[in-house]
Amino acid sequence: MKKSYQSLEDNSTNNMKQVIYRKITSKILYLGFIVLLTFSATLNAQEGDPAKGKTLFNTNCAACHQLDKKMTGPALRNIEQRLLDEQGLDRAWLDAWIRNSAGMIKSGDAYANQIFNEYNQTAMTAFPTLSDQDISDILAYTAAEAPAPPTPGPDVVVSTAATGDDSSNKLILGALALLFALLAIGLILVRQTLTRFAQEKGIEVATADKTIPIWKAFAQNQFLVLVTSIFFLLASGYFVYGYFMQIGVDQGYQPVQPIHFSHKIHAGDNGIDCKYCHSSARVSKTSGIPSLNVCMNCHKSIYEYNGETTAEYDKAFYDGEIQKLYAAAGWSDADQAYTGDAQPVKWVRIHNLPDFAYFNHSQHVSVAGVQCQTCHGPVETMEEVYQFSPLTMGWCISCHRETEVNVQGNAYYEKIHEQLSKKYGVDKLTAAQMGGLECGKCHY
Amino acid sequence: MMFGSIVACKKDTRPNYQFMPNMYEPVGYETYGESEMFPNDAVALLPAEGSIPRGYTPFDIANDIDGFNLAKETLTNPLDSTQIDTPRAKELYDIYCGICHGNLGNGQGNLVKREKILGVPSYDDAGRAITAGSTYHTIYYGKNAMGSYANQLNEEERWQVVAYVLKLKSDLEK
Description:
The complex is a heterodimer of chains A (444) and B (174).
Chain A (H helix, E strand, L loop, with lengths): L1 H43 L5 H12 L17 H9 L3 H9 L1 H7 L2 H9 L13 H11 L10 H48 L13 H7 L1 H24 L17 H7 L4 H4 L14 H8 L15 H15 L1 E2 L4 E2 L22 H7 L4 H5 L16 H10 L11 H11 L14 H4 L2
Antiparallel strand pairs in A: 1-2
Helix pairs in contact in A: 2-7, 4-5, 5-6, 13-14
Chain B lengths: L1 H8 L11 H4 L40 H10 L11 H11 L1 H4 L8 H4 L18 H10 L13 H19 L1
């Protein structure tokens, strides 16, 4: 057995050697073939590579053009064929337009001027660096068939799995209930038979002597009554204190907003900085509710949601929310223009300090360099935002006591920092030691 | 159990009770608040037409292709080299521009990598040949799919960002 195995192995190594030699010759053949192919491709410059074209399209064209949707410029699906069919313009015209559209408009080309005026006289950037092959690649990409709309396969699977889970849970619960009922019936039957036996044999079942009931005994023992009433008073005092202490604290407050804005998608998945939208947190008292033009900076071109979805929030839901934004901002996606019919969005304020406490965002964000998440919690993971911190005075103060102030490179305050450090005998100053606990700092 | 039942009464979709609401609620109107003296009760309104913020310098160049070309050729950065604060400019750039244009200015920001926004050019793109003036005009008014950033950056910050963009451009061209 072993021998035959060995011989097989030997055989294969022999074969391997032969294969290596054969490969080298075939490799040379292939190489020649590839060289031939590339040469023929550059000579023809007609056969474009859609994959390369996609990269080129995304870097050069996609700022203003999409394949199936009008943006700053027209939709480009099958543009070469369409131009030829509808306008009788050939590839040479297209090449000239891509390389220098402004020149063509000036030269008085009829269609060039027509398209220029149709798109609000927005000049197309010239691309003199694109080679013939590059343009062929891009056109090959635009000529590709539109992808079929995805079938809702996975969703169906998920929902059936969920219902299956549900029904099996119910089945188990029902079986358990039945089992307990049978047990109870069995016990009752056993007791009945036992008493019947006892009666038949004439045994008297002993009954206990009459004693004082336990509650009466308890009421007669004054010491026990005293201890229990003190215990109950203390316990209820504890709970009443707990209830009163949480009045006015909105930790966990999570209102329903008029537009379902997911911080998880924007700040978490896409990694947009908090201050991109809440730009006034850098410079003013309030963090700023972004005006809708900030949303439209991106949502002019992002008109649908293509990220991961859950059973609760699917693609249609998120797309609907983007449509709500368009309605509020007065943006017509079909015409790519503002209609002027805007509706203000009435967002619900979550974090709210009482009127007698002063808080300034810029002081914390820009001066102290505190991260937004220190107070607002992991907003980048919140589908719907809730209040993470209690925002009580004790919470403010404990942070002021613990946070060490970054005095590095702050020449203006160097002297006072030095003196304060000497006074308190510490290396690092906390916000509290710099006056962060004075009443008048926040209450005035 | 009693505590549990009390806590259960509190609903997360509405704010909690307050001890003395008249000390919590502001008497005057607050930012983004509501007040009956304004139309639609909204405090957040546009400034009166023609009003000018303190320290405002007008920007005369128009928002069209001629204005863009004018800015591209004539407009220069009023900040001199001592006034340009590169660390702060980088911070601003990374917040407002880097998400699309990439922190290196090569057009490969996070939103581009995730194919949310496409076609963001690199700053060393020869066809565009950006200058200080064209960059400022673009930040001020927006261009093509890019929106205006005039409300997120003030005038001085815009010029800081312009200086940083040109620094990135020269780094890319190396």
